[in-house]
Design a protein that fits this description.
globular, mainly alpha, disordered N terminus, 278 residues, 78% helix, 15 helices
Length: 278
């Protein structure tokens, strides 16, 4: 075979083979991004006495303060509302972390992307792994609240595992898509930050969706237009022993498939250009 024949048979820079190959190569380097993700957390709390425990402490303080404040404002019983708010914040922190850090994942790793021959997905895996570690740290607050304020947990608690796995998958495609777009258009990260802040108040975290549904059913349906709500519910419901609403799972499934299609198209078309844009 002549050299030019081999080159002709090689996939171009804009090919599905290169896009999926990037994901496979990034996954194959999981020992590297796993180490880097853990070092990110250790570096953030370097020289601190409590170290990464501050992650759980700060989460616990914020959840307690907001749970008591909004519980009094809305007349909700603290025994159920405080675990409700804390669990919502636990999930929200993961979602917002993937959105905000995802929009700058390639910009923040400019030096590595330019001078280290590594797949782009390595930086995505590193980010999602770091957010997963934060989530696991904060899960201690949920366990503590289950001891103080016991909830009617049953076998549906196991559904929290696949629900979180789905959340991780969505965190990955969000980071890929927003990361590529924000690298090309530098005005995007501030816009995403503003939208994310707005989504916090639109998502039933410090207010109860069930209470809104009981009082104003029509407006409760409008709240379901917020996609983040469905991701929060598929994890919070099993963690609090609430009835499982399968409608949320179906919606999340559609969002997951649609999001990954969009992310893979962006990775296919613009993966090779990111190094020039950073």
């Amino acid at each position: 075979m002549q050299p030019h024949d081999a080159l002709a048979g090689a996939p171009g820079s804009r090919s599905w083979a290169r896009a999926f190959g990037d994901l496979r190569q990034g996954w194959a380097q999981r020992s590297l991004w796993g180490y880097l993700g853990w070092q990110d957390i250790k570096q953030r709390y370097r020289r601190s006495v409590l170290g990464p425990l501050w992650i759980s402490i700060s989460m616990g303080v914020i959840a307690t303060a907001m749970g008591i404040l909004y519980g009094v404002l809305f007349g909700e019983p603290i025994q159920t509302f405080l675990p409700y708010v804390a669990t919502g914040l636990l999930i929200w922190n993961f979602v917002s972390g993937c959105i905000l850090e995802g929009s700058e994942v390639f910009i923040a790793n400019e030096g590595l992307i330019r001078f280290l021959p590594a797949p782009l997905s390595l930086h995505i895996y590193r980010l999602v792994w770091r957010q997963t570690l934060f989530f696991l740290h904060n899960l201690v607050i949920w366990a503590l609240l289950m001891v103080i304020f016991p909830q009617p947990l049953d076998w549906t608690l196991l559904l929290a595992v696949p629900a979180f796995a789905i959340l991780v998958l969505n965190g990955a495609w969000i980071s890929i898509l927003t990361g590529i777009i924000a690298t090309r258009f530098r005005d995007i990260p501030p816009i995403i930050a503003s939208i994310t802040q707005l989504l916090f108040f639109m998502t039933p975290i410090v207010w109860s969706y069930d209470t809104l549904q009981d009082n104003v059913a029509g407006r409760a349906r409008l709240a379901e237009l917020n996609p983040v709500m469905h991701f929060v519910e598929i994890i919070r419901q099993p963690l609090l022993g609430q009835d499982i609403v399968w409608r949320h799972w179906w919606i999340v499934g559609v969002i997951t498939v649609t999001g990954w299609v969009a992310a893979m198209m962006a990775l296919r078309n613009y993966r090779s250009r990111v190094a020039y844009w950073v």
